[in-house]
Amino acid sequence: MKKILVSVALVWGIAAIAQDSTKEQSNPLSFSAYAEAYYSYDFNKPADNNRPAFFYSYNRHNEFNINLVFVKESYNTDKIRANIALAAGTYVNANYAAEPGVLKNIYEGNIGAKISKKDNLWIDAGIFASHIGFESAIGKDCGSLTRCILADNTPYFESGVKLTYTTKDSKWLLSALALNGWQRIQRVPGNSLMSWGTQVTFTPSGKVTINYSTFLGTDKPDSARLWRFYHNLYGIFQLNDKIGLTLGFDIGTEQVSKGNSSKNTVFSPVAIVRFIPNNKWAIAVRGEYYSDENGIFIATGTPNGFKTFGASVNFDRNITGNFVWRTEFRTLHSKDAVFVKTNSVTDTNNFVTTSLALKF
């Protein structure tokens, strides 16, 4: 932990010096940071204070903790761009558990170059945010406080190389990716193959965004290779000055066994309505369903697998432009009894989460 704090302090110090020495001139270097503290209470009262294993954010029960804190330095010119960010928190503990050593604390680390004089065509390599999903690790930027089940069980980050083209009117973004795996920095031992991804984003106006992303690859060693094909589709619509709507639908398949043409399927629809009555308050209501009958991502060992409906409502108070206090009430109801409650199991999980998030 001491090494992490020293690294964070070093990045922070370098960033502050760079900014202070170039206040009055154009500078390709920029500095940003994010911190989010939270408290979550699970009414099933898990004995070890760990919330169900399919939650990878805000996953500690009945304790005050840090979900995510990071410091980031960026470099941007007309032809070169780069980012480095170091992070800590319970989000990092959960999502980077498979990564060795100091890789666990690299939130972002990439470099890119513009490879066309006429067109907005870039190639980037390293560790970067996932091309899948409308929710990110940065809670302040998401419509709901906690992540939907869909988001928590698809990649938050990925590593590899990507080619990105944006049209001159910025309405279309097209991207192709070669990846080290499904939310992997270091590839799975024994896996000799790269994974692949695509992304198409259409933004006809500032009020509409439509995205379709795919993933094709495997997250297993060659000896047990199972091909996974995943589709991610969502739309974000600002209906008027006060109401926004997000609709998402994901569906994925994975081979039942190596060499078998049969496939298991997972799918999830999500809808979020966000109401902003004034510049101080926001309210969001979410409905979701997640079906993973054969345990591609969430294994239960029950007859019907993980088939769960969820609903939540959160209230946000903007204290300042970059500082927000959020509180969310959320309930999950599953077809089978898949949630642990004291010394038994139940088909319901209710919890409340509150957080303070600062971004600058």
Query: Distance between the terminal alpha carbons, to the nearest Å?
Result: 24 Å
Backbone shape: globular
Order of SSEs: HEEEHEEHEEEEEEEEEEEEE
- Based on secondary structure, the structural category is mainly beta
Tally of strands: 18
Report strand order across the widest sheet: 1-2-3-4-5-6-7-8-9-10-11-12-13-14-15-18
The percent range for helix content is under 10%
General description of the model:
By secondary structure, the protein is mainly beta. Helices cover 8% and strands 52% of the residues. The protein contains 3 helices and 18 strands. Strands 1-2-3-4-5-6-7-8-9-10-11-12-13-14-15-18 form a 16-stranded antiparallel barrel. A two-stranded antiparallel sheet has the order 16-17. The two termini are 24 Å apart.
Brief account:
This protein is mainly beta and 360 residues long. It is 8% helix and 52% strand.
What's the layout of helices and strands?
Layout: H1 2-20, E1 29-42, E2 64-76, E3 80-88, H2 90-95, E4 106-114, E5 120-129, H3 149-152, E6 157-166, E7 172-179, E8 195-205, E9 208-217, E10 228-238, E11 243-255, E12 263-275, E13 281-292, E14 306-320, E15 323-334, E16 339-341, E17 344-346, E18 348-359
Antiparallel strand pairs: 1-2, 1-18, 2-3, 3-4, 4-5, 5-6, 6-7, 7-8, 8-9, 9-10, 10-11, 11-12, 12-13, 13-14, 14-15, 15-18, 16-17
